[in-house]
Structure of Cytochrome b5 heme-binding domain-containing protein:
Amino acid sequence: MRHGRGFKTTFVDHLRKRRQLANMSELHEYTAAEVLRHASTDDCWLILGDDGRQKIYDITAFLESHPGGPEILMDLAGQDAHEEFKEVGHSKAAQDMVEQLCIGRLRVDGRRKAKRGRVVLPVAVDDEKRPRHDRLVALMILLMALCFGYLLVPNTAL
């Protein structure tokens, strides 16, 4: 069954629940890594907002109702989609509707963002498990230098 503006009844109900939850408590804080884990059609979150004021939006219930189709949103799932959202020039009604999907704020935790909203997570490297090729590389360079020296120096002993 469809509701007034073409949204499915379940989506409208979802918005009502979100509004009730927002009135009951403060916004929860999530890290970029937590948001990145919600990038499927069954569980889809986005980050919107300028640096320092970024909010998290659960758009799962809205995917099928999005006028541009779910594919556009899924390309940005789990990421910062603020620039893309601004570029499209959404109407005031669309901006108000998105606010109703807000579930929290982005916690600033020192992680870097790559271009196009991709989140770059730090990678821990265990030095014990890292292969030790330093000596092998040095030996190969030495052998190559000797070979080139042999080939380039004229042989006058003949």
